[in-house]
Amino acid sequence: MIEIHLGPDDLARIRFARSPMGELASSLQLLGDPGRQTVFRPWVSAVEPMLRGVRLRILPALVGGPHWSADFLTPPPVRMSAEFEEELERVRASSPSLVRASIDEMYDEVPAVLAALYDDPERELGKVADELSVYWKVAVRPVWPRLRAVADADLGYRAQAVTTGGLAKLLADLHPGIEHSAEGMRVLSPRWKGEHRLNGSGLVLIPCVFAWPQLIMLFDEPRQSAFSYAPRGVANVWNQIPDMAQEPLSDLIGRSRASLLAHLELPLSTTQLAGYMGLTPAAVSQHLSVLRRSSLVTSRRDGRAVLYQRTSLATELLNQAG
C-alpha cells in the first residue's frame, strides 16, 4: 500500500484530461499481456494481422515490466483535449535526462535495442516518434473515436461526482484499489509501498480504456503527477451497434432517429454521428433537435464540440423494442 499526500495546492489543481498517447502505450502493453486480452478480443483480433507488416523495433522494449512503459512516452497532458500530434511532439522533445531515467527505471542493464537511444536520446528520439506514429495510424487511430467517447462519458460522470460529493465521492469508484484518506488517498497495491507527497502541482486523472483493470501512477518530478485509470463502460467500447431496420422503435420515430439513439450509448458529436451513419451533419443535427425536445438525448459542450448522449428513457425504449 502507498499513501498519497495531497497538500492544499494539490487539491486545488486536480484536473482531468484525455491522452491519446496514454491509450497507445497501454495498448502496446496489452498486446504483450494475454491475461488481459479477453475484454479487448475484438480489437486484438482486428489489429494483430494489420501489425504483421509493421516493423516496431524500439517500442516493444519501452513498454511492459513493472513500470508499464517508459515515463517519457506518456507526458501528462497539459490540457483537457490533447491531440496525438501534440503529444507526439512532446515525446520527440523529451530531455535526455528523462529518457535515460525512464530506461533506468525499467532495466537493471540497458538492452541492446535501447543502447543507441540511451547513449544519444536527441539523435534517436526521432526514430521513436516515427514508430509511435506508424503504430498509432494502424492500431489506435481507427478506434480513437470510440475510446474518446467512453472517456467523455466517464468525465461527465466524474464532474458530477466532484460537484455533489467532493474528493471523497470522486475517489469512491475511480478504481478498486483507491481509498480516500485524511491527507489524500491510499492506493492498495503490492507494487507500491510507503508514502509519496505531491509537489504542489496537483494531479492529472486520465481515463484510459486500454489500462483496464490497472491503475497507472506516474510520479515524475518536476512534472505534474498523473494517474491513468480505466473509465466506466470499458466493456461497451467494442459493442456492435444493432441494426434498427426491423426494430419496432424505428416504426415509431423513424429508422434514422432510432439508429441515432442506438449509437448514442456513448457521447458523440454531430460530425462523428454523420460519419458513422452516412448522413450529412445538417440532417443529423435536425434529428438530434427533435430527439432532444422529446427528452431522448441530452447535450453538453466540450470545447468547441457539442456531445450528445441518449437519456435513460431512450435506453429503456431501445431495450423494450429489442
Short description:
The chain is α/β, with parallel strands linked by helices and 322 residues long.
Describe the structure.
With 322 residues, the protein is α/β, with parallel strands linked by helices. It has two domains: 2-229, no CATH class; 240-321, Arc Repressor Mutant, subunit A. It has helices at residues 8-12, 20-31, 41-51, 84-92, 96-106, 115-119, 121-140, 144-172, 248-253, 255-263, 270-277, 281-293, 312-321; strands at 2-5, 15-16, 178-181, 184-187, 194-197, 203-207, 216-218, 225-229, 268-269, 297-302, 305-310. It has a four-stranded mixed beta sheet. A four-stranded mixed beta sheet has the order 2-6-8-7. A hairpin with a 6-residue loop joins strand 7 (216-218) and strand 8. Helix 2 crosses helix 7 (121-140), helix 4 (84-92) packs antiparallel against helix 7 (121-140) and helix 11 (270-277) packs across helix 12. The longest helix has 29 residues, at 144-172. The radius of gyration is 21 Å and the shape is globular. The termini are far apart.
Core attributes:
322 residues; alpha/beta; 2 domains; 13 helices
Shape: globular
What is the strand content?
5-15%
Give the neighbour order of strands across the main sheet.
3-4-1-5
What share of residues is helical? 40-55%
Strand tally is 11
Estimated structural class: alpha/beta
* Low-pLDDT residue intervals, each spanning 5 or more residues: none
Order of helices and strands: EHEHHHHHHHEEEEEEHHEHHEEH
Tell me the number of helical segments per DSSP (H or I, 4 or more residues long): 13
Average pLDDT over all residues:
85
Nearest-angstrom radius of gyration? 21 Å
Query: N- to C-terminal separation?
Result: 46 Å
Overall domain count:
2
How many strands, what sense, and barrel or not for the largest sheet? Answer: 4 strands, mixed
